[in-house]
DNA sequence: TTGCATGCAAACATTTTGCAAGTAG
DNA sequence: CTACTTGCAAAATGTTTGCATGCAA
């Protein structure tokens, strides 16, 4: 049993799901797996191209949809920008966006999660998914 | 001192801000003030037209931008739909969306607000604005 | 070999904008 | 009067799709 890169894990998961691994998809998986930030479709396309993989933007979008459907990546839709994507690392988290620098940070808060569930429950609902974004500014 | 309708309050506020009250804007203010739901630009346009006011969709968008800039309305961007708008009633609230019916409900939770501020503060930030949406399903 | 995947360009949906004509103040 | 608004149509943006061709399994 060897160390598996995140890109390889992605591939294996896709194969298991019966999705074909094409040259383009493999390239995108590598780019996605390497992403430390939260790139949008155009950036992913550029990175794949820069890495020498010929991929069309249409395929980038189609691949992102497929990966999202498999639950392997998460689509983020922040205010006033194209959708961004991040590899789903399993544990849920929310986002904080520095409105001055555009930097995106992640955070988890169990109490907020619980409160949300309580609020929904009080009104007779259960949460399917939720979205919490804090648009912030560094304190002087 | 008389009872002032919400549309009239809107007009007065706009006038104070030095914004001209055109026939089109007055019509949109009335439509917005009367909205119990959370209509999008097209719906507002249709309602204004139905009310006999000739307004172009471009003007609807321009007016909505102006009203948002004045802080008189709030733009809501839920997942997978055009932006919706609601009159700003002064007190902040978040939204719960029934994924089955599309119904939008409002809620306020002081503890969640406080927790958000704490999280930001812990990381050295202060909150500029935030967005919290619960996508929910009715419990059987 | 065969059906899923791709590239391209065109279509799409929403929103924004340039410009000439209209109008509120 | 005159600067701000409008309507229209065109453009911009981000994303999706139809179709002929390509390729993974």
Automatic annotation (TrEMBL), chains A, B:
<keyword id="KW-0805">Transcription regulation</keyword>
<dbReference type="GO" id="GO:0045892">
    <property type="term" value="P:negative regulation of DNA-templated transcription"/>
</dbReference>
<dbReference type="InterPro" id="IPR043135">
    <property type="entry name" value="Fur_C"/>
</dbReference>
<feature type="binding site">
    <location>
        <position position="94"/>
    </location>
    <ligand>
        <name>Fe cation</name>
    </ligand>
</feature>
<feature type="binding site">
    <location>
        <position position="113"/>
    </location>
    <ligand>
        <name>Fe cation</name>
    </ligand>
</feature>
<dbReference type="GO" id="GO:1900376">
    <property type="term" value="P:regulation of secondary metabolite biosynthetic process"/>
</dbReference>
<keyword id="KW-0678">Repressor</keyword>
<keyword id="KW-0408">Iron</keyword>
<dbReference type="InterPro" id="IPR036390">
    <property type="entry name" value="WH_DNA-bd_sf"/>
</dbReference>
<keyword id="KW-0804">Transcription</keyword>
<keyword id="KW-0963">Cytoplasm</keyword>
<keyword id="KW-0862">Zinc</keyword>
<dbReference type="GO" id="GO:0003700">
    <property type="term" value="F:DNA-binding transcription factor activity"/>
</dbReference>
<comment type="similarity">
    <text>Belongs to the Fur family.</text>
</comment>
<comment type="subunit">
    <text>Homodimer.</text>
</comment>
<keyword id="KW-0479">Metal-binding</keyword>
<dbReference type="InterPro" id="IPR036388">
    <property type="entry name" value="WH-like_DNA-bd_sf"/>
</dbReference>
<feature type="binding site">
    <location>
        <position position="130"/>
    </location>
    <ligand>
        <name>Fe cation</name>
    </ligand>
</feature>
<protein>
    <recommendedName>
        <fullName>Ferric uptake regulation protein</fullName>
    </recommendedName>
</protein>
<dbReference type="GO" id="GO:0005829">
    <property type="term" value="C:cytosol"/>
</dbReference>
<dbReference type="GO" id="GO:0000976">
    <property type="term" value="F:transcription cis-regulatory region binding"/>
</dbReference>
<dbReference type="Pfam" id="PF01475">
    <property type="entry name" value="FUR"/>
</dbReference>
<dbReference type="GO" id="GO:0008270">
    <property type="term" value="F:zinc ion binding"/>
</dbReference>
<keyword id="KW-0238">DNA-binding</keyword>
<dbReference type="InterPro" id="IPR002481">
    <property type="entry name" value="FUR"/>
</dbReference>
<feature type="binding site">
    <location>
        <position position="92"/>
    </location>
    <ligand>
        <name>Fe cation</name>
    </ligand>
</feature>
């Amino acid at each position: 049993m060897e160390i598996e890169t995140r890109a390889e894990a992605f591939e294996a998961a896709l194969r298991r799901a019966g999705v074909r691994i094409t040259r383009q998809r493999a390239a995108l998986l590598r780019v996605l797996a390497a992403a430390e930030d939260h790139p949008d479709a155009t950036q992913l396309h550029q990175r794949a191209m820069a890495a020498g993989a010929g991929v069309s933007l249409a395929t980038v979008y189609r691949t992102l949809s497929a990966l999202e459907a498999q639950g392997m990546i998460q689509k983020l839709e922040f205010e006033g920008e194209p959708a961004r994507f991040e590899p789903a690392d399993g544990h849920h988290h929310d986002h904080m966006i520095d409105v001055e620098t555009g930097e995106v940070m992640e955070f988890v808060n169990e109490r907020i999660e619980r409160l949300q569930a309580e609020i929904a429950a009080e009104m007779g609902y259960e949460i399917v998914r939720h979205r919490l974004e804090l648009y912030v500014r560094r304190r002087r």
